[in-house]
Amino acid sequence: MGIYLPIAEISVNIFVLLAMGAAVGFLSGMFGVGGGFLITPLLIFYNIPPAIAVATGANQVIASSFSGALSHVKRGTLDFKLGGVLLAGGIVGSTGGIFVFGFLRRLGQLDLFISLLYVVLLGTVGGLMLVESVNALRATRSGAAPVLKKSGQHNWIHRLPLKMRFRASKLFVSVIPVLGLGAGIGFLSSIMGVGGGFIMVPALIYLLKVPTNVVIGTSLFQIIFTSAYTTLVHATTNQTVDVMLAFLLMAGGVAGAQYGAKAGQRLRGEQLRALLALLVLAVAFRLAIDLFVTPPSLYSLSGVDPT
Amino acid sequence: MADFRAFLAAASLSLFAAASPARAQTPATENIQIGLSTDHVSITAGFSGADLTIFGSLENADPRVARQGRYDIVVVLEGPARPVVVRRKDRVLGIWINLESETFENVPVSYSVATTRPLQDVTDPNSYKQLSLGAANIYMQPADDGDSPATIQEFTAALRERKTATGLYSVNVGGVQFLSQNLFRATVRLAPNVPVGTHKARAFLFKSGLFIKESSAQLEIRKSGFEQSIFRVAHDFSFLYGVFAVSLAMLTGWLGRLVFRKD
């Protein structure tokens, strides 16, 4: 069944989008990530213009992170104070990102920049995750106890000034890295249409030493607001949010996420991470191919922005 | 559902032409008329392209010339003109990057042609050039005159090629048919991404390769339907639209948890 997307201005198959949303939702539920980093490239592969894929991806991320954050509020595994500081940074980063987005679009380099950013980021994160999880898998197979990173050990981040106490996270740390991390994620959110959970979660654990149980809830909390802000600004400045497209993805996504979360409980942590790493690398690889393959036409047309 | 057909009605049939006594001495010059029954066409959001039929009449036709098939008609439906940027990708370190670009002012967004016979059989290239008739003969004004003629030529050609590839510029050979000696029907193609706005329909009459007369009419193409309302709201009330998009996402997330909850 075809449906016409009002903002993307193309006809698409409604079931393909629902299935896409459900599949990504399933994976995001399974791995505990927002899924924005999969949705946006998938939309680009499905011939949705990258600018619209990014803005709509940000809109879709709100739904999955909101539904995820609700269950963390219920379980009390959400640090509102830490989330709030991350968010303050996020708003600044996101505003900067939107500005860069509009600038690149006028230059005609937006599509390239989005693809490059995806390839580099997904390639790096996927690669690191694969190495880490394969090592962990090997360690468990050989029977050796997994080597834990010594906690409580302070790195340079803990020597920065302007310290603040985050009670729920049992943390006493400078606000500078927290704001910086929030800003970085906000920037990526507005340029890539991702929530940024796949960077935020490891950063909170390894850099700020936030206890693992509050990490996901807190990250989801900040992602709701950053992506809501990103969606709003994209809607007002670039008019690239397609609600029709976003709604179909969300509808499939929230359903898939709940089943994915259940399926995820049956797999072991290292196996999950290895699978996710392979998936991330596959997406990066597919995007990279498009950068190098000779396009069918070297020329492209675009309208002139009134600005 | 995309099938719509706008019949643009036949204009006055020239019945009196044949009865005119003056015709016996000096043959009156032929005249061409196209008439549109409506000044606007609404297309729905799911529009996937269609044929637009335009009727017209040929007045004072010489029956002898008509019998020999030496009257030719070219009908053009030209969309609104807008500025366009043409970009060329080049390989930098193995990656294809948009490098060179050229901006053109006032390029017709769409240009659909219907003809009685292949364009090269109707008249010679010079006449087309004088009439600026045909996609190859529309003058495209570059925004920056300083660029070299070779560059401008290259990008103009690329612009035409892309427009043709996306179906916005099309030629329907045999799309104009004589229904009788005086009445003809032209079928021009509307691409799925036909632009909204004022389109100009023009009909050119040729007799044995010579241009005789031109007639034109205007047509407004509008989009209608639910999707179009969304588009309008997104552009006119973009902040409220954004608030709505965010609220919808939160509502969906909350409902999804209620309905599909597994914990």
TrEMBL record, chain A:
Membrane topology designation: Multi-pass membrane protein
Cellular compartment(s): Cell membrane; Membrane
The entry's keywords: Cell membrane, Membrane, Transmembrane, Transmembrane helix
Regions that span the bilayer: 12-45, 82-104, 110-131, 168-185, 273-293
Pfam hit, one: TauE
Primary location: membrane
Record keyword Transmembrane present: yes
Entry similarity comment: Belongs to the 4-toluene sulfonate uptake permease (TSUP) (TC 2.A.102) family.
PANTHER family per record: MEMBRANE TRANSPORTER PROTEIN MJ0441-RELATED, MEMBRANE TRANSPORTER PROTEIN YTNM-RELATED
Protein name: Probable membrane transporter protein
Automatic annotation (TrEMBL), chain B:
Domain of life: Bacteria
NCBIfam families (alphabetical): alph_Pro_TM
Name this protein carries in UniProt: TIGR02186 family protein
Presence of keyword Aminoacyl-tRNA synthetase: no
Keywords: Membrane, Signal, Transmembrane, Transmembrane helix
Signal peptide: 1-24
Record-annotated membrane-spanning stretches: 239-260
